[in-house]
UniProtKB/TrEMBL annotation:
Parts of the chain that traverse the membrane: 6-28, 57-77, 97-118, 171-193, 199-219, 279-303, 309-331
Localization: Cell membrane
One Pfam family of this chain: ABC_membrane
Protein's name in the database: ABC transporter ATP-binding protein
Keyword Electron transport (UniProt): no
Sequence ranges assigned to domain ABC transmembrane type-1 in this UniProt record: 62-350
Keyword Membrane: yes
CDD domains linked to this entry: ABC_6TM_TmrA_like, ABCC_Glucan_exporter_like
Membrane topology category: Multi-pass membrane protein
Length: 627
């Protein structure tokens, strides 16, 4: 009967674990933790693409692998040495032997510490480099996407792709992969050492391993699902936050705080629930593996202790006190990596999920790209021609229907028409923000599809109604990234009458511009965008409703600077206020995507058509307002 006792103990423990595990699995299913969500990209492809980022640092990884082997030596040898120390202390005590063994222990401990330090330093450096390479690639790729593609992705999602996701991948390179490899090697190293010491006690420990492995596999399935849920909920919350923080003033004006708050709470609770599910999965797994560990230690102490005290054999093998001490340490060194393995697989999954999201964005083929034969356009005169242009944002919903016009170099042309008639769309198409479906757009007689996009856009200066200023200074917003002499910057400001308000500021051109330029008025922002455009001397200037935000006094200043700017190049203006474009060389009136009338102000008035009606309507209104 005594011979069967160990078998009974181990069998009983295994049975108990099977039961606990079954209950936990059923509860998890009921709680709907396991959600069937798989990735679309195969792991092999994700790995191949991630390896491409690691390839430039292969020698650093070889070094890390080498020092890792040395630190593994500590994990495997240290329990043997402690066992020896124990036997020396309780057995035939010999000071010199004890000192040699303790010295050996301290020696390998120091080597292990140095190795861990080198490993951490090298990996951190490499990780940061991979992180910035990846961020750069995603950011550059996002920049290459067309307006239509960017319109389809919420800004919050893009922010997550550029900031959070590369972090997860960098963590994978700096931590997960190496620890995973180390753990696998430690498991095999410790196993070999245990087998050498006492194979019967080793078999006892191994009885618990199938459970740890089974837990790991099932935990992986659960954790992958909960991580995806947490990721999705985080992205959703970020997207909502980024959009609503940008529009928070509108929320306040329309008294929508309560509604927005409840939308926010709903998203926040979804994230909370997803995180709770994750905690639940971890909460089951970790204690169960810990219980396995404790059970195996108890088995060791019972079987090993009995064998030692009663000189009793464990399945025919004798046990010394040193072996029990070594095994006690080995069990923890054996179970820890196995337990960590599951966590690391989980983190690896998280990194793969992040990588997949990044690669999905990177796989979006930019819709507006250079054709193979596209050429550079160094200097342009500024001649623009639309030949029977048809364009739709959404297939079949034509926004421009057979639009044709010709603009000679240095002409000033105004586009007028009711809201939604297609004025801004025309300006957007000239810069090739979108590709047209039918017809041709020519600059200096060259189809814009045959011109390199960067060299095409270089010749345009845009002044839009909603001027975007970057955080920085007034100067950095005017010069952007290029170098300009101080004199030129000042002249540009004076030319567009922006100097009047700039030099009243404490720091003049170095005055700080806060996010989106919210410490400047809309009119001031427009004057700055004028100065920015003027300084870069584009061949074609585009003003989309640029004078809409400016008070009458500033408008006069603007009119004055616009008149001066006319001499610089071709000027295209979209304006609702017809009084601002009376001096244009040509006025094109659009209606529902078609040109209804065109000519000079006087010509159009003579026609007594739609322009005449619009003008008299606005003129009478202004007269009434003045009266
Ligand atoms: N990104 C877009 N996606 C889908 N449809 C769009 C997009 N931008 C504009 N539209 C549609 O195209 C049409 C023309 O818009 P556009 O902005 O060119 O008009 P507009 O004449 O400049 O109007 P407004 O005077 O109000 O600025 C409108 O019906 C608008 O709804």
């Amino acid at each position: 009967m005594r011979e069967y006792l160990p078998v009974l103990i181990v069998g009983g423990i295994i049975g108990m674990f099977a039961l606990v595990f079954l209950i936990a699995y059923l509860v998890a299913r009921r709680k709907n933790v396991l959600e069937n969500r798989e990735r679309n990209m195969p792991d092999s492809e994700i790995i191949r693409r991630l390896l491409a980022y690691a390839k430039p640092y292969k020698w650093q990884f070889v070094l890390v692998f080498f020092v890792m082997l040395l630190s593994i030596g500590y994990e495997v040898i240290s329990p043997l040495l402690v066992g020896h120390i124990e036997e020396t202390v309780v057995g035939d005590f010999e000071m010199s032997y004890l000192l040699t063994v303790v010295g050996g222990y301290v020696g390998i401990l120091l080597v292990s510490l140095v190795c861990t330090y080198i490993q951490a330093m090298v990996l951190q450096k490499v990780g940061q480099k991979i992180l910035s390479a990846m961020r750069e690639d995603v950011f550059t790729h996002i920049e290459s996407l067309s307006h239509a593609q960017l319109n389809d992705i919420p800004v919050g999602k893009l922010v997550t792709r550029v900031s959070n996701d590369p972090n997860a991948i960098s963590f994978m390179f700096t931590n997960i992969i190496v620890t995973l490899a180390k753990n696998v090697m430690v498991i095999f190293g410790v196993l070999a050492a245990m087998l050498m010491l006492n194979y019967m006690l080793t078999l006892m420990v191994l009885c618990f391993v199938p459970f740890v492995v089974l837990f790991t596999i099932i935990f992986r399935k659960f954790s992958r699902s909960v991580h995806l849920r947490v990721n999705d909920a985080t992205t959703d919350l970020n997207t909502y936050l980024s959009e609503n923080l940008s529009g928070i003033k509108i929320t306040q004006i329309f008294n929508q705080e309560q509604r927005k708050m409840s939308d926010f709470l709903q998203r926040s609770r979804t994230l909370q629930r997803a995180k709770r599910s994750r905690m639940f999965v971890f909460g089951i797994f970790q204690p169960m593996v810990y219980m396995l560990y404790i059970s195996s230690v108890l088995c060791l102490l019972y079987l090993g202790g009995k064998g030692y005290i009663g000189n009793w054999t464990v399945f025919g093998q004798t046990v010394s006190s040193g072996i029990i001490v070594s095994f006690y340490m080995y069990i923890s060194k054996f179970f820890n990596p196995i337990q960590q393995l599951a966590e690391q697989f989980d983190m690896l999954q998280r990194s793969f999920a992040a990588a997949e999201k990044i690669f999905t964005v990177m796989d979006m083929v930019p819709e507006v790209v250079d054709t193979p034969n596209a050429r550079e356009l160094t200097d342009i005169k500024g001649e623009i021609e639309f030949k029977d242009v048809w364009f739709a944002y959404n297939p079949g919903e034509w926004v421009l229907k057979g639009v044709s016009f010709h603009i000679s170099p240095r002409q000033t042309v105004a586009f007028v028409g009711s809201t939604g008639s297609g004025k801004s769309t025309i300006l957007s198409l000239i810069c090739r923000n979108y590709d047209i479906q039918k017809g041709q757009i020519l600059i200096d007689g060259v189809d814009i599809k045959d011109i390199k996009i960067a060299s095409l856009r270089k010749h345009f200066g845009q002044m839009l109604q909603d001027v975007f200023l970057f955080s920085g200074s007034i100067r950095s917003n005017i010069v952007l990234r290029e170098e300009f002499p101080e004199e030129d910057v000042k002249k540009a400001c004076e030319y567009v009458n922006a100097d009047k308000f700039i030099y009243r500021l404490d720091n003049g051109l170095d005055e700080v511009v806060r996010e989106r330029g919210n410490n400047f008025s809309a009119g001031q922002r427009q004057l700055l965008s004028f100065a920015r455009t003027l300084l870069h001397k584009p061949a074609v200037m585009i003003l989309d409703e640029a004078t809409a935000n400016i008070d009458t006094e500033t408008e006069l200043l603007i009119q004055d600077s616009l008149e001066k700017m006319k001499n610089i190049g071709t000027m295209l203006i979209v304006a609702h206020r017809l009084s601002t474009i009376q001096h244009a060389d040509n006025i094109i009136l659009l209606s529902h995507g078609e040109i209804l009338e065109q000519g000079t102000h006087q010509e159009l008035l003579k026609q007594k058509g739609r322009y005449y009606n619009l003008y008299t309507l606005q003129y009478n209104k202004e007269q009434l307002q003045r009266a």
